[in-house]
């Protein structure tokens, strides 16, 4: 079956522009997670959705970052006024429920010039 | 201050060796995850556990909740096991270790 997909796979943008990253979770998975992995750094939790609601937004690094999920399925992560330090791989994962194994997407590599 | 500490950071082993990677954490958790990240970046969840021990093929994961410690063991290691292994804990939010880079030499 289809796994978690993310688009675009790569994104190059100029500092100050807005970007939108998309995640298509596995069908039927109610839990969806966004993570970030900067070059040479470990994984960093950004936000978690249960259905359409985000009970935990504590990981978003600044108010330039926002995320939404509609219809309990697709999620978008938006970064406004991008900065060079936003350059990273943005990973999405989904699971049937928060208490179950997560399945990771291939990530979106974002480069802010 | 790191909520999750892994050791060792880097590990080189000969094919066939028994490997142990350790993870200690300082926060209350509902579950602990072991993840595998291959060169090229793809991440696979190996285990999610909240108590005891789990086994999948040559991989074994254990957790001691009282001691806030988990271990990932690889028996009869193989070059295809070469990857970064990441410990993550789910508490109020998710915390990640910095990973253990494993290289298995034929």
Provide a concise account of the structure shown.
The complex is a heterodimer of chains A (113) and B (106). Chain A is built from no helices and eleven strands.
What does this protein look like?
The complex is a heterodimer of chains A (113) and B (106). Chain A is globular and about 35 Å long. In chain A, the strands form 2 sheets. In chain A, strands 2, 4, 5, 6, 9, 10 and 11 form a 7-stranded mixed beta sheet that branches. A 4-stranded antiparallel beta sheet of chain A has the order 1-3-8-7, with no helix packed on it. The model of chain A has no long low-confidence stretch (mean pLDDT 92). With 113 residues, chain A is mainly beta. With 106 residues, chain B is an all-beta fold. Chain B is built from no helices and 11 strands. The chains are: A mainly beta (113), B mainly beta (106). Chains A and B meet through strand 4, strand 5, strand 9 and strand 10 of A and strand 4, strand 5, strand 9 and strand 10 of B.
Quickly count the helices of chain B: 0
The largest sheet of chain A is:
7 strands, mixed
Give the largest interface pair and sizes.
A-B, 23 and 21 residues
Quick one: how many beta strands of chain A? 11
- What share of the residues of chain B lie within helices? under 10%
**Mean pLDDT over the full residue set of chain B:** 94
Specify the helix fraction band of chain A: under 10%
Rg result of chain B: 13 Å
Q: Shape of chain A from CA axes? A: globular
């Amino acid at each position: 079956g289809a796994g978690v997909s993310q688009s675009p796979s790569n994104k190059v943008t100029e500092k100050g522009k807005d970007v939108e990253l998309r995640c298509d979770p596995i069908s039927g998975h109610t839990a969806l997670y966004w993570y970030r992995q900067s070059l040479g750094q470990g994984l960093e939790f950004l936000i978690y959705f249960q259905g359409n609601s985000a009970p935990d937004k504590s990981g978003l690094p600044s108010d330039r970052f926002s995320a939404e999920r509609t219809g309990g399925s697709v999620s978008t992560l938006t970064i406004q006024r991008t900065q060079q330090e936003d350059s990273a791989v943005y990973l999405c994962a989904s699971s049937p429920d928060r208490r179950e194994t997560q399945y990771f997407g291939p990530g979106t590599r974002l480069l802010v010039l | 201050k790191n909520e999750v500490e892994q050791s060792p950071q880097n590990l080189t082993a000969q094919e066939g060796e028994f490997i142990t990677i350790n993870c200690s954490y300082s926060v209350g958790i509902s579950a602990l995850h072991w993840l595998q990240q291959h060169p090229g970046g793809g991440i696979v969840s190996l285990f999610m556990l909240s108590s005891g021990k789990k086994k999948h093929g040559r991989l074994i994961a254990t957790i001691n909740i009282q001691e806030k410690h988990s271990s990932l063991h690889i028996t009869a290691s193989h070059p295809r096991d070469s990857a970064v292994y990441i410990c993550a804990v789910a508490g109020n939010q998710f915390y990640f270790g910095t990973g253990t880079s494993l290289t298995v030499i034929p």
